[in-house]
Amino acid sequence: MANKNLNELRTQIDECDRAIAEAFAKRMAISGEIAKYKVENNISLLDLNREEELISNISKLVPDVANEIPTLYSTILSLSRNKQERDYGLDGGNDMSTEFLKKLPIPMEVKSKYHLSATATAKKAENDKEIADVITGASKKKILVIGPCSADRADAVKEYCGRLADIQKQVKDQLILIARVYTAKPRTNGDGYKGLIHQPDRINNDIFSGIYAARKLDADIIEEFGIPVADELLYTSNYRFFSDLLSYVAVGARSSEDQEHRFVASGIKVPVGMKNTSGGDMATAINSVYAAQNPHDFIYRNWEVSTKGNPLCHTILRGYTNEGKSYPNYDRDSILKLCHLYEEKGLPNPGFVVDTNHANSNKNYAMQPDIC
Fold first, then answer.
1. Is residue 100 a contact partner of residue 91, using CB atoms and an 8 Å limit?
2. Three-state SS across 140-166?
């Protein structure tokens, strides 16, 4: 009898969903007609007063779900505006010298295409717990984020990760190896190859395809080898495409001073490493950690959001440059200074990661084993 009742309820839900889908399609079609009229008559597409009035009126019609109506209709209105922009090539004005080329998929679409199996999801959760225990001091192991400068060829990256997985078995009592799979590459002056997300074929710009390619690579690594994956938070809006796959996130020297990077890091559940600036100011690095460990309200991906703070955020010492020369900052005095700054701020989990590349090794890979 219970199964029969459940089936009956599901049938009712299916009928509701069909009615909602049909009504939504009809609404989108009418919205398109309205947009066409507005464009032809030089009327602004966006009318915030009309939208606020609509949400208020609908909320009054269904008091039982009045609290949910603003979220529902904000999404519906956003989808409607997005379609209007796609259909008419508009972004609400012409006050930018920017051409809007292609609407990107939403995170849910990308995640649904390449998702982890139940086994891989459980393994990822296990990896995350082990890494968090290192950051908090509950584990005496060390983490090693290791891999090439950028992940530009899926086959080569997967071969490398297969070797890492074999080594991980040998060092499991001392080290946690995290595959460095950086899919977006920062450029000093903007020129050159910008990573798998930008140029999935290493030549042509195709960010739409690049997002899917990067997600597939991360998912394949976890699925096939069971090792954790790290990436750089170069573009904050990209994180939602990979938020269920990454076990470690780094914020680069150029980005760690940026408020949006700090605030987004405060809403990430896995460890986030904040690099010191290229000039070597450790106080700025500690300010980045302080900001990321605390809660914030801000704008993210067209939403007003609130974060809880990320206690797993920490510093990455990457050395520094001065007048074109590179200097290390993993020495005893630098580390003592960093510890003092942590203590002054009263921050939890006062740890750090040493970047064995960049200014610490003057980009000489042969020095990296000695630094470790």
1. yes
2. CCEEEEECCCCCCCHHHHHHHHHHHHH
Tell me the two tokens of residue 259: 């408020």
Amino acid identity at 349: N
Dihedral sign, Cα of residue 272, residue 361, residue 153, residue 166: negative
**Buried b or exposed e, range 35-67, using 16+ CB within 10 angstroms:** beebeeeeeebeeeeebeeebeebbeeeeeeee
- Which of 101, 110, 76, 85 minimizes the C-alpha distance to 238? 110
> How many Cβ atoms are within 10 Å of 289's Cβ, its own excluded?
28
CB neighbours of 182 closer than 8 A, spacing ≥ 6? 147, 148, 149, 150, 151, 195, 230, 231, 232
DSSP readout, 203-216? SS--HHHHHHHHHH
β-pairing, 314-317 vs 352-354, is parallel
* Segment 141-155, tens digit of pLDDT: 999 999 998 998 999
Whether the per-residue pLDDT at 229 is higher than 50: the answer is: yes
